[in-house]
Write a sequence for this structure.
């Protein structure tokens, strides 16, 4: 099943795996660490990550996806389709 186009689901899974490996290598995998990661990305403190916060947060872990990959990943994580990633969406994606 392609989510956003032919073969894009494979690309999303690859990017997601790279992100999980990078964050777990630098911080661990427990829920408290994931919450700390999310809060460090949420610069305006509204409880959600917009694309810029998401990009800067990933960069702080040394993860620099292409713009198109970043947009696809945000769209994939954004379960309620509001254009931002909430903590619960982030947590679900990282599990």
């Amino acid at each position: 099943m392609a989510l956003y186009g032919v073969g894009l689901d494979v690309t999303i899974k690859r990017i997601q795996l790279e992100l999980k490996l990078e964050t777990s290598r630098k911080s661990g995998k427990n829920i408290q660490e994931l919450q700390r990661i999310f809060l460090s990305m949420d610069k305006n403190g509204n409880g959600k990550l917009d694309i810029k916060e998401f990009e800067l947060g990933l960069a702080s872990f040394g993860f620099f996806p292409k713009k198109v990959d970043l947009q696809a990943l945000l769209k994939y994580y954004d379960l309620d389709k509001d254009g931002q990633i909430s903590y619960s969406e982030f947590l679900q994606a990282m599990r």
In short: The radius of gyration is 12 Å. Strands lie at 48-49, 85-86. DSSP finds five helices and two strands in the chain. The mean pLDDT is 83.
